[in-house]
Design brief:
The protein is an alpha/beta fold and 233 residues long. It contains eight helices and eight strands.
Length: 233
C-alpha cells in the first residue's frame, strides 16, 4: 500500500493528505496507520469499538503522531452516515481510503449457515462498498484520490474450509477491477493488496462456523490434518 500512496503523492503534499483506514485497531491496519503517520500523513483510524483503538492511540501519542481514532460501525449505513460528517468537517475530503477491516469464517461450506455467510460478506464486501460510496463524492469533486482494498491471496485461489472468506475476497477483487476502470478517467486510482499469512490476530479473531466441529462430518479426519498442518489452533 505504501508505494501506491507514495506514487499518488506526486501532486499533493503529505501534510495535507488524509488517509482513512478501517480496521486500524490491530494487524495490518494498525501497522499501516502508524507507518503512514510516521511518514507525515494525516491518518484516521477506525474500528467498531473505540476501546479497541486504545493501544493505537497510546503509541501514536508516545511518538507524537497525527492519528485520529474514531469508532465507526462500517456494517451499517447509519454507522457510517453518523461519523462521516465529523470526518469531513475536521479533515475535508478523504484523499486515500484503505479498506482493511475484515475477518475470516472457517468451516466446510456444508456446515455454514446462510446467516454466517451473509455476515461474512457484510464485513468483507458490503462494508467496503459502503465506504467507497462515502468517499467518492469528495474525490470526484477534487478529481483525485486513491482507494486501496485489502484483499487476500485467497481472493485469487480458494483453499479448503475457507470458502466463505475466499468468496468474499473474490467478490472484492471483481468489484475493484471494474471500479478501477470506471474511476481512472476521473483521476481516482483503485488498487488491490493481496497479503498472504502474516503474524497478526487474524487467526485469533477467525470465526468458526457453528457446525464445523461436528465429529459426524464425512471429512472430519481430513479437517483435523488440515488444522494441524496449518496451525489453526
Amino acid at each position: 500500500a505504501v508505494p501506491i500512496l507514495e506514487e499518488a503523492q506526486m501532486s499533493t503534499s503529505q501534510a495535507t493528505t488524509t488517509v482513512l483506514i478501517t480496521g486500524a485497531s490491530s494487524g495490518i491496519g494498525r501497522a499501516t496507520a502508524l507507518y503512514l503517520a510516521e511518514k507525515g500523513y494525516a491518518v484516521i483510524g477506525t474500528s467498531r469499538s473505540v476501546v479497541r483503538l486504545a493501544d493505537l492511540q497510546s503509541e501514536a501519542s508516545e511518538k507524537s503522531l497525527q492519528i485520529t481514532a474514531l469508532e465507526m460501525d462500517i456494517n451499517s449505513d447509519e454507522g457510517v452516515d453518523w461519523v462521516f460528517p465529523e470526518i469531513i468537517d475536521e479533515h475535508g475530503t478523504v484523499d486515500v481510503l484503505v479498506n482493511n477491516a475484515g475477518y475470516g469464517l472457517w468451516g466446510p461450506v456444508e456446515t455454514l449457515s446462510i446467516a454466517e455467510i451473509k455476515a461474512q460478506f457484510e464485513t468483507n464486501f458490503f462494508a467496503t462498498v459502503r465506504l467507497i460510496k462515502a468517499v467518492l463524492p469528495g474525490m470526484m469533486l477534487q478529481r483525485g484520490g486513491t482507494i486501496i482494498n485489502i484483499s487476500s491471496v485467497l481472493g485469487r485461489m480458494g483453499t479448503p474450509f475457507n470458502g466463505a472468506y475466499a468468496a468474499s475476497k473474490f467478490a472484492l477483487e471483481g468489484l475493484s477491477e471494474s471500479l478501477r476502470v470506471e474511476l481512472w478517467p476521473l483521476g481516482i486510482r483503485v488498487a488491490l493488496v493481496e497479503p498472504g499469512l502474516f503474524h497478526t490476530d487474524f487467526k485469533k479473531n477467525q470465526v468458526v462456523a457453528e457446525g464445523a466441529d461436528s465429529g459426524a462430518l464425512a471429512y472430519s479426519s481430513y479437517m483435523e490434518k488440515y488444522k494441524s498442518k496449518h496451525g489453526r489452533f
